[in-house]
Amino acid sequence: MGSIRIKALDDLGARKPNFVKAPADKVSDYYGMNVFNVTEMRSHLTKDAYKAVMNAIDTGARIDRSVADQVATAMKDWAMAKGATHYTHWFQPLTGSTAEKHDAFFEPIEDGKAIERFEGSLLIQQEPDASSFPNGGIRNTFEARGYTAWDPHSPAFILGTTLCIPTIFISYTGEALDYKMPLLKVLDVIDKAATDVCKYFDKNINKVTCTLGWEQEYFLVDAALYNARPDLVMSGRALVGHISAKGQQLDDHYFGTISDRVLAYIQDFEIEALKLGIPVKTRHNEVAPNQFECAPVFEEANLAVDHNLLLMDLMEKIARKHNFRVLLHEKPFAGINGSGKHNNWSLSTNTGVNLLAPGKNPKTNLRFLTFFINTIKAIADNADVLRASIASATNDHRLGANEAPPAIVSVFIGSQLTEMLDKLEKSIQAGKMTPEDKTALKLNIGKIPQLMLDNTDRNRTSPFAFTGNKFEFRAVGSTANCSSAMLAINTLVATQLKAFTISVDARIEAGDKKDEAILKELQKLIKESKKIRFEGNGYGEEWVKEAKKRGLSNLKDTPSALQVMTSPSYIKLFEDLGILSKREVLARYEVELETYILKLQIESRVLGDMCLTNILPAAIKYQSQLITNVQGLASISGKKNNGSSAQLALIKSISEHVDRIYQYVHEMVDQRKKANKLEDTSKKAKAYCDNVKPYFDQIRYHTDKLEQIVDDQVWALPKLRELLFTK
Ligand code: ADP
Ligand code: MG
């Protein structure tokens, strides 16, 4: 037969699960063993050096050279004792993946000998040859250098035999070329803004940390079948393929039994993740066949982001050992669910309080309401900023496709909190509050924890939902670096919290008591942010109409969603807080668009190639067989077309589909050429979106028809039923 697909299927039959022997020790015995964490630091550093590093982590103070030397030596000794031979600055360029360039510890010295060395200067800063990372025009050739600089907030770790040091990546002129630097800045800003608000309630609060708990969804496919699909290899998604007879309609995969082969893989990457201190806790089958989810316990946001990137990397590496390939793409298969990465977001204080968890009394509940309502208002004012933060070519397939959250940003809070906000909105009267008013309000607010216990609302169609003690941003894509979403949410909330403090202080200045000032301001915010709250079905047509009436945006594709980044108000938001300059924002805009264009370009090329070199040849081959058959039948009966009407119909149908595919592929190539000639990146992205992309579906309609006609033995591409149902 010779088809790669048939060979891959044969191999599959012989595949046995590659069982993992879990370490005999308890997780607590090996958890974090590959991390140079605070405990390791304490035992390896002098007291003063340890203090200096802790101080740098807490306050951002500079680490002096002698301390850096000590830390570097300690890291090297620790890592070498664990078998490490190399070190690298591990960073997050705007490509979306992580980057590393390994250098050996050894250095040749005189007499042909060598020693192992790692100095503070190498730990603190390096200059990778980084001219080919995306920079959106920030680096001209004369200032092409980029620097990586140590981020002591996130501990160094060992991957394989390499000591990895998390770093930021900046240009020679100090501009961010990565995801981490703006994230660190915004985390600092939200800390200050939220701490100021906390002071109204508790003077002991002097630090607020942003917490992030992500939930990573992914698909697994057999490696041999994957390799026989150029589209999966090149673009991470199936560009063609008829939906299998059975998909997810029986709901039999969600929370189903995990197969031996899959479980062996999951256990394997979980063990490696746990050794790296990634607190992976939850695993389950997802809704679509061969779709799964992995979720850790939430952590401080910067660490959580690093851990997510590290986990995605581990998942890909370890999948190969099990003859699987992991698909992190947002929509690998049409017709079944795509993958997201819910970002559970909250704020927590140095006193151990979750600011989005209702408290035990009216005072702590007022604090809860303050953060809760300010967050809603922050999203309401700048929903487009949130939408832009999750825009990508791959996530476009998901948003608005009746499964994942819609492209319209709204906030869900549940019926009981809705009622509470409605009451607050109405019960606070203009002018001075009477003591009776205050008591009534306090009683009301005091009821919140009680309400929350019964709050079982779980609206899965909302992109931004309150889930009891955190907001869950569900529109984030499965391939995304969570930093983008965290940057947007925290920038918006910090801006709002700062405005809140100013307004409340002004009310106090004007004679209101503190609680009264807070309540009145909250009432105002409830009113102003009402339009963003939506409790109904986010997938329905009704909502699209209603949202339009409310004036909410429905930005369906990446070029339209990113457009906001060029607006003065967007730039002002990030500039005012000192997080990104105008130049940095516009550079990011360029990079995002560029990535969008390149992704569509790759998909379009692969699709064209597959059509011309896989699909049309298979169809024509089968058609030739049919023609031979018709000729044969005619020769034995002596009559033309005798007994071959079905064959003739098939021959005709194949020709029609072949013609259409051939025509569309050529038209698509023409559109691509036209788009490529456009100089302006945003026009080019729009041309790819509006003129090239529509051909994908048109072509697919006909390829999928052919798949249903052509002899299964002749069809070279693994089918969706094979990709999705082999375990
Ligand atoms: P689900 O949303 O699937 O029902 P959970 O509510 O238990 O599950 O939590 C989902 C995720 O939310 C987990 O990753 C968890 O760590 C995270 N999470 C829980 N509390 C917080 C918090 N305060 N801040 C950030 N993430 C949180
Ligand atoms: Mg969840």
Summarize this structure briefly:
The chain has 727 residues and is an alpha+beta fold.
Structure characterization notes:
With 727 residues, the protein is α+β, with helices and mostly antiparallel strands. It folds into 3 domains: 20-178, Glutamine synthetase, N-terminal domain (Ubiquitin-like (UB roll), Roll); 188-580, Glutamine synthetase/guanido kinase, catalytic domain (Creatine Kinase, Chain A, domain 2, 2-Layer Sandwich); 594-724, Four Helix Bundle (Hemerythrin (Met), subunit A) (Up-down Bundle), CATH 1.20.120. Helix content is 51%, strand content 12%. It contains 26 helices and 18 strands. Strands 10, 11, 12, 13, 14, 15, 16, 17 and 18 form a 9-stranded mixed sheet that branches. Strands 1, 2, 3, 6, 7, 8 and 9 form a 7-stranded mixed sheet that branches. α4 (47-59) crosses α5 (65-81) and α22 runs parallel beside α25 (694-709). The model has no long low-confidence stretch (mean pLDDT 91). Adenosine-5'-diphosphate binds at residues 211-213, 215, 295-298, 344-346, 354, 467, 469-470.
Bound small molecules, by name, code or SMILES, are: adenosine-5'-diphosphate, magnesium ion
Shape: globular
In CATH, the topology of the largest domain is named Creatine Kinase, Chain A, domain 2
Distance between the termini: 24 Å
Mean pLDDT reading: 91
**CATH class categorisation of the largest domain:** Alpha Beta
- Assign a percent range to the helix content: 40-55%
What fraction of residues sit in β-strands? 5-15%
Taking all Cα atoms into account, the compactness measure Rg is 29 Å
Residue windows where pLDDT falls under 50 for at least 5 positions: none
- Care to count the β-strands? 18
Q: Which CATH architecture of the largest domain is right?
A: 2-Layer Sandwich
Major sheet summary line? 9 strands, mixed
Which superfamily, in CATH terms, is the homologous superfamily of the largest domain?
Glutamine synthetase/guanido kinase, catalytic domain
Structural class: alpha+beta
Tell me the domain tally: 3
Number of H/I helices = 26
